[in-house]
């Protein structure tokens, strides 16, 4: 039974992390979702974060923009990186300040119902990079979080492309362990019904695969890739059963309400399944850390006893520094917030990020990793 103190707590906003391949229409989807939420409740507009450092233009006004903190082109220059490596490194640098992002988001938590993250098309950020795990773990430990995997529906009509998308989605699901929604975008161009059928009916996918050009070799036998995709579709059959899938059009707005309904259902899944698992993982981590601390303290006390036996004359000099001696050091502990919330009004002397380069002749010195 829920206690009175728990039931009286305000409802936390839902975080929607949009992930997908480059060109899948993530930014346009976020813009349409932003417009839809403004229409539904203009008094509680969504709070939006742009995490793509290389985008030239976004069709919405983000509250927090990574481009205000990290200059992607200068990161490429300083680290001798290509475009993809520059985006990945820029996001890694940004995540070192993600605690400040959470502070700004939490300040607005009582005034918004949805927090939306628009991410880069470099999907490896969420498959193996540390920055993707840091972002998802940080927001999921503070707010109910849902992953929306955006799929370019017209391009997935080929069985091989469809399977590639599903494998990426499967990898991200098991990496994040968060409620997951497949969003088939651009349904105004091509209906997503074929994809739903392939997910629900293994034989329908097999038939589509067999009829696709190049599915058989010169002897009329199924090719290696054809057999491989057949096998993978069997493996993913269990994966499909636990997924929510919706079709939307970011151009017309069709399907947006169905997506929000799926988000609410996924929020319930988060609270029933993810929160208890998060609590168990946190308790196990704290217990492990406590064991390490106790073991370290025990070793230290043994070493201290041995040292005192060997050098008894040094014992009177052992003492803790007084509070007065540490006073000057404590004054330097408070750091200025470097992340900018663009929805807040500016004030005199507002922080200006020196890493945001304005002229080509300016130099930047990023710390070398390691």
Notes on the protein architecture:
β5, α7 and β6 (180-185) form a beta-alpha-beta unit. The two termini are 49 Å apart. With 370 residues, the protein is an alpha/beta fold. The protein is globular and about 90 Å long. A seven-stranded parallel sheet has the order 3-2-4-1-5-6-7, with helices on both faces. Residues 1-6 and 347-361 have low confidence and may be disordered. 48% of the residues lie in helices and 10% in strands. The protein is built from 13 helices and seven strands.
In short:
The chain is α/β, with parallel strands linked by helices and 370 residues long. 48% of the residues lie in helices and 10% in strands.
* Helix percentage range: 40-55%
Low-confidence stretches: 1-6, 347-361
Indicate the proportion of strand residues.
5-15%
The chain-level mean pLDDT equals 82
Radius of gyration: 26 Å
Structural class: alpha/beta
Give the biggest sheet: 7 strands, parallel
Number of strands: 7
Terminal CA distance reads 49 Å
SSE pattern:
HEHEEHHHEHEHEHHHHEHH
Strand order of the largest sheet: 3-2-4-1-5-6-7
Q: If helices are DSSP runs of H or I spanning 4 or more residues, what is the number of helices?
A: 13
InterPro entries: Gpn, Gpn1/Npa3/XAB1, P-loop_NTPase
Subcellular location: Cytoplasm; Nucleus
Biased composition (Acidic residues): 321-344
Subunit structure: Binds to RNA polymerase II.
